[in-house]
From TrEMBL:
InterPro entries noted in UniProt: EipB-like (IPR015000)
Domain of life: Bacteria
Signal peptide: 1-30
Keyword field: Signal
Keyword Signal included in the entry's annotation: yes
Statement: the UniProt record of this protein carries the keyword Signal: yes
Name used for this protein in its record: Uncharacterized protein
């Protein structure tokens, strides 16, 4: 998972946004074959992190990706964190999302629920349709609303495939506007991805589970850092991203060695389980 629905998990705690990913219909044209899979990541503070007001953060992220380039792709994503403060209080945030992206990026359907200490805190549901020169967003929850965006905006699936294509071409910077159904279902993020040099083979296991890394395979991969910016904040000069995600991105769409930077603290995501799923045949 590289993902833009790694975005949003900590949003209701005031800690930032995370990222969800899917595959893309252009995969066959670009020579990119995305691997349907289920990945599990254990989360904790990085060694250098100093989280003001927090004594501990731990959690787990589960990402399941299925589908193909002809029928579209589905993503089921769950992100659970437990935060302990200096007073001994704990707060458990549980983000659950599901999405479906049609072939050729024709539409993007999304549903998400966020529970705080097992109580429903937020719920978002909607659909975005591709139009000539933009997208039309139809939000059902938290409140009904329609938004028309007349500019180029990528869905998560398109973003991933384009990023992989740029990486394969040796490019180092990729800038794009991204819509993934975040927050109230109307949010668009300006993103900048920095792509490192291509690496061959599985790479160092590091803190990830050896068996999980072995399951990915010895594919080419790239170190990537994606910065997310709020388009409503800042009119000029150098802006500070509201969130950054760093990871190793493999050419089959799988990600590992995550670092989630929320500004005032960082989380590390260690890949602990990786299960490949059978890819359905694309009859087209």
């Amino acid at each position: 998972m590289y993902h833009s629905h790694w975005t949003r998990p900590l949003a209701t705690t005031g800690l930032g946004v995370l990222l969800a990913i899917a595959g893309a219909p252009e995969a066959a044209l670009a020579g990119i074959q995305l691997q349907p899979h289920r990945a599990v990541y254990d989360l904790g503070l990085t060694d250098s992190a100093e989280a003001a007001g927090m004594t501990a953060v731990r959690g787990r992220m589960v990402y399941e990706f299925t589908g193909n380039a002809c029928e579209g792709y589905s993503v089921a994503f769950r992100f659970v964190t437990q935060v302990a403060d200096e007073s001994g209080n704990t707060r458990v945030t549980d983000l659950q999302t599901s999405s479906f992206e049609e072939p050729a990026g024709k539409s993007f359907q999304f549903v998400s629920k966020t529970f705080i200490n097992q109580q429903l805190g937020e719920e978002t549901q909607g659909r975005a349709e591709r139009t000539e020169g933009g997208i039309d967003i139809d939000v059902k929850k938290p409140k009904e609303n329609q938004v028309a965006l007349k500019r180029k905006v990528l869905f998560p699936t398109e973003h991933l495939i384009t990023l992989l294509g740029r990486a394969q071409e040796g490019e180092t910077i990729f800038v794009a506007d991204l819509f993934d159904g975040s927050e109230t279902g109307e949010k668009v993020y300006e993103t900048t991805a920095v792509i490192g040099p291509r690496r061959e083979g599985a790479g160092d296991v590091g803190r990830d589970a050896e068996a999980a890394v072995g399951e990915i395979g010895a594919s080419a991969h790239w170190p990537v850092t994606i910065s997310y910016f709020d388009e409503t904040k800042g009119d000029g000069g150098e802006r500070t991203p509201i969130y950054q995600l760093s990871f190793l991105l493999y050419d089959n769409g799988v990600s590992r060695r995550l670092v989630l930077d929320y500004g005032d603290f960082e989380l590390r995501g260690n890949l602990v389980e990786m299960t490949k799923m059978t890819a359905s045949e694309c009859k087209q």
